[in-house]
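Translate sequence into structure tokens.
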Amino acid sequence: MRSRPVANRTALALAGLALSASGVAAVLGAEDRILAALSRHPDHADHRLLIAAGGAALAAALVLLTAQIPRPVRRRLQLAVPGCGLDSRAVRHAVQAGCTAVPGVARARCRLTGGRRTTRLTLTLTLNATAHPGDVLTAVSDGVLHQIAPLLTPRRLHTRIRLRVRRPRPRRAR
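Result follows.
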């Protein structure tokens, strides 16, 4: 698991815990005790401080929550040549067609996400029960992905490949 989502989810959990605790304290009427415990001068404790802190925590939690959503790649990918673009759906369909043509692959699914500098390609390949995963992985990485990488030249391409094996189905008697 990447470190950015782990840190974001941890911060979201802590912000949710703090907001839940402040909500419970507001319902139970313990605001004065919390403000007195948080501030060094209980005489100057203000209820607006708790509201402002809760609002800031809520805003930070919403920002971190939106950071969890993967960004889809733009429809038109700008190529290295000025004025030239490539449709991202065409790239996905080309990768799917190339992966499906590899012997042993029953089904291929492709997803492109990323931004201006990096593109993440996630492949999910469903293999036949008789296919060797090492051979399929070598054929996909050396054949299909080797042809696609130059198309996305200005961007770095990060690839994640998931292999699933299709179970052999028993034959039905008629």
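Note: The CA atoms of residues 15 and 90 lie 41 Å apart.
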